[in-house]
Amino acid sequence: KAGVTQTPRYLIKTRGQQVTLSCSPISGHRSVSWYQQTPGQGLQFLFEYFSETQRNKGNFPGRFSGRQFSNSRSEMNVSTLELGDSALYLCASRLTGEAFFGQGTRLTVV
Amino acid sequence: AQSVTQLGSHVSVSEGALVLLRCNYSSSVPPYLFWYVQYPNQGLQLLLKYTSAATLVKGINGFEAEFKKSETSFHLTKPSAHMSDAAEYFCAVSDLLTGGGNKLTFGTGTQLKVEL
Fold this sequence. Notes:
The complex is a heterodimer of chains A (110) and B (116).
Chain A: E1 5-7, E2 10-13, E3 19-24, E4 31-38, E5 42-50, E6 53-57, E7 64-68, E8 74-78, E9 87-94, E10 99-101, E11 105-109
Chain B: E1 3-7, E2 10-14, E3 19-26, E4 32-38, E5 44-50, E6 56-58, E7 64-68, E8 73-78, E9 87-96, E10 102-106, E11 110-115
Parallel strand pairs in B: 2-11
Antiparallel strand pairs in B: 1-3, 3-8, 4-5, 4-9, 6-7, 7-8, 9-10, 9-11
């Protein structure tokens, strides 16, 4: 069974640009969550999607958004990038119990 | 909101020695607790989970953790460390949210170093 797949693995963007990250959950998992990991703030919850609906959102500005498609694949978008958005973005999929994480997308904003 | 505290941001052990990584939780209801491991530039891999079925939980790679309600602790142990255990370890608690979903709240992580 394939795990959670995140693409791309690495990204370099310039301040002010926007970026879209993709996550394909484990087959059959309908819940997809996104987390941001930085050295200063640690692992922080961004949002959770379930059946194409955002079910919960963390304490992040509106520049961070996401969506989920009918096949449960999810994308997150960050607009007007800031240097502080440089982080490892992790996607997790869940059926009913534990969350399984992808390898992450390392975003560097220059 | 639930929270977890990991004592010791860095722990160093000798190969073959006992590994003990500490985690204390704060929760008003019986929690779901997890330990994850992260290798450099990788995602999080689930080591084990506590879901109230048994207080001693066995995970992968020889790790186990004991849930102690009286101490609000969920410490991770391994009897004999191996070089391949060097990584960062995160304790997490599952927060049920009003929207019907849940989120994980993580501790700040413990970097485990294994020395020859």
